[in-house]
Amino acid sequence: MGLLGKIFTWWNGATVGTGIFTSRNGEKVGQDAAGNVYYRHRKDPARRWVIYAGSNDSSRTPPGWNAWLRGTIDDVPGDETLPPRRAFEKDPTPNLTGTLEAYRPGGSMAGKGKRAAATGDYEAWTPE
């Protein structure tokens, strides 16, 4: 991404302004498996933020880091601070709304298939 892209796009990584603010005031505290980098303010550690590796979508933030960003936990997340993963837990998936992979139920205008015919329990309203 070129300089113009960095200036005008906030939805894909960090803008130039965020990068400057981060370099002046941020202290890197960690990085997750997806490449997102987490910071806290040098003078006010309660101020925390993330610079995403790719699109800015909070659903891409792992639960431990999400708790840290919100101030729910004070310790920087690591393998020892998180409870063991349960068998039914899956990796987080990004929000697919607005993409070709988004869920489209049968019968919707964007979905495939046809809407089921009325079953006879529906009576159309007509104004008097």
Automatic annotation (TrEMBL):
Superkingdom field = Bacteria
Q: Where is this region: Disordered?
A: 76-128
Q: What does the entry list under GO cellular component?
A: respiratory chain complex I
Please list the residue ranges that the record marks as compositionally biased, kind Basic and acidic residues: 82-92
What would be one Pfam family of this protein? NDUFA12
GO BP of this protein: response to oxidative stress
Q: Which first-to-last residue range defines the signal peptide?
A: none
Q: Which InterPro entries match?
A: NDUFA12
Name under which the protein is recorded: NADH:ubiquinone oxidoreductase subunit NDUFA12
